[in-house]
Write a structure and sequence with these properties.
Layout: H1 3-14, H2 23-27, H3 54-63, H4 65-68, E1 85-87, E2 90-91, E3 96-97, E4 102-105, E5 113-119, H5 129-144, E6 156-162, H6 170-189, E7 192-199, E8 203-208, E9 211-216, E10 220-229, H7 265-269, H8 283-298, H9 312-324
Parallel strand pairs: 6-7
Antiparallel strand pairs: 1-4, 2-3, 4-5, 5-10, 6-10, 8-9
Helix pairs in contact: 5-6
Length: 326
């Protein structure tokens, strides 16, 4: 920036004219980053379930830490501090930590508020990085659908990307995943991603004697979803209501009965990864699902709600039963 440029900016300011300040004045002109990457085809062997005993599978899946453990920041003592927390993680009179979303009131004199949920499907990235990113967003949306939200377009996302940049194939996976959700899925859903962060060094290398070892984390997208809530009193929980007479449990299968098991909890507990992972094939399915849940909730037709859990449909039903003590 020359002296004449500065004088012109100061003169413009003192004459009460708008200043058009180039970004290069603030940040200089750093060189553009370029990465030359190559894609690596995913592998995997189809999970064979023919020899699996149902009772053993149930026990193994319910013992998998990602399904069974609710300890992380769950029993913290001040989870309802401020008096504006409408929905914390503990559900029902038996305080089972199975809530799909957090809901807070905007103030003490209104029923409006805010909701927040999360979604991630990191194991799927070992097989299909774009599918794992789409599923992370789908999980966040199906979680936050329990709250009374006017439209899916009200949801805003924060995207936390983690990748071992420079490791073979990982940069290409990151590009494909960002393209899948940033240029395709989110615009189709009408949802924007105004904020996020990235961690690009998810790999560690060390020397053990004469042997060089390394540990590389798979590509991860952690989604946080936020939305304004029209009425915090209409927040649904997984707690089954057993005192309402005859009721029905409905499964809305966004996977269209394809039951793709790649990266599933079931595959993991049998020390496999599977081959074909689940995916969100059509954005309109998720949009229509969200709209339907909101309409049913506003009509007073829903007594309980839960998304399909990490452990699959059985884990979902088990968590609903635990919350309802039935």
């Amino acid at each position: 920036t020359t002296t004449e440029d500065v004088i012109e900016l100061v003169d413009t300011h003192f004459n009460n004219k708008p200043i058009d300040l180039p970004m290069s004045v603030l940040f200089g002109k750093p060189p553009r980053m370029h990465r030359n990457v190559s894609s690596i085809a995913g592998g995997g062997i189809e999970l064979d379930t023919t020899e699996i005993e149902l009772a053993e599978a149930i026990t193994r899946v319910l013992c998998l830490p990602s399904v069974a453990s609710k300890n992380f920041l769950i029993t913290i003592g001040d989870r309802s501090i401020t008096g504006l927390v409408s929905r914390d993680q503990m559900v029902g009179p038996w305080q089972v930590p199975v809530a799909d979303a957090a809901v807070t009131a905007a103030s003490f004199d209104t029923y409006c508020g805010e909701a927040m949920s999360m979604g991630e499907r990191t194991p799927i990235a070992l097989l299909d990085a774009p599918a794992s990113a789409r599923m992370a967003i789908a999980e966040a949306v199906t979680n936050i659908a329990c709250a009374n939200i006017a439209a899916i377009s009200e949801i805003k996302l924060s995207a936390n990307w983690m990748v071992a940049a420079g490791h073979a194939g990982e940069d290409a996976k990151l590009y494909a995943a960002v393209e899948a959700v940033g240029l395709e899925l989110c615009p189709a859903l009408g949802i924007c991603v105004p904020v996020g962060k990235d961690s690009m060094s998810m790999r560690t290398v060390w020397q053990e004697g004469d042997e060089r070892k390394s540990n590389t984390a798979p590509l991860s997208l952690i989604i946080s979803a936020f939305a304004p809530v029209s009425d915090i009193r209409k927040t649904l929980t997984p707690q089954l209501q057993i005192d309402k007479g005859e009721t029905d449990l409905l499964l809305i299968d966004l996977g269209h009965a394809r039951n793709r098991m790649g990266g599933s909890a079931l595959a993991q507990v049998y020390r496999e990864i599977g081959c074909v992972p689940p995916d969100l094939d059509n954005a309109s399915d998720l949009k229509n699902f969200f709209t339907l849940i909101q309409q049913l909730n506003n009509s007073g037709l829903l007594l309980a709600y839960h998304d399909r859990s990490d452990g699959g449909l059985f884990a979902t039903l088990a968590e609903m039963a635990f919350a309802g003590h039935c």
